[in-house]
Specification:
mainly beta, 3-stranded antiparallel β-sheet
Length: about 110
């Protein structure tokens, strides 16, 4: 959350790889202050590094959503996944008419320069 840049923070979101029985990549949320973690992954799905988008009125560090394109090799297609940043529950999946190339990093730009 850019509102916490340069300030004390607790929440970190990571991109993970599970090459064991899941053959998937995932999202991991670490709360460094509470020493807790929670994660999301799904069989054969490969998300790009998620970006955090704060809720405009939000005041808590994890008050917002995570977004990332997710590649599915079974269909050779991509969807934009949106997760609740507090719970990592998927709240929306938007289909893409084209495959979004898999990359390791993502970025959120809150608006176009004027």
């Amino acid at each position: 959350n850019d509102r916490f840049r340069g300030k004390p923070f607790c929440i970190v979101y990571l991109h993970t790889i599970q090459w064991d029985n899941r053959n998937a990549m995932g999202i991991l949320k670490l709360d460094l202050c509470k020493r807790t973690s929670q994660g999301w992954d799904d069989l054969n799905l490969f998300p790009v590094e998620p970006v955090f988008v704060p809720r405009p009125e939000g005041t808590e560090e994890d008050d917002g959503v995570l977004m990332a394109p997710v590649y599915d090799p079974r269909t050779d297609g991509s969807e934009l996944y949106i997760w609740d940043a507090k719970t990592l529950k998927v709240i929306a999946r938007l289909s893409s008419p084209v495959r979004v190339p898999w990359t390791n990093h993502g970025i959120w730009l809150p608006g176009y320069p004027e």
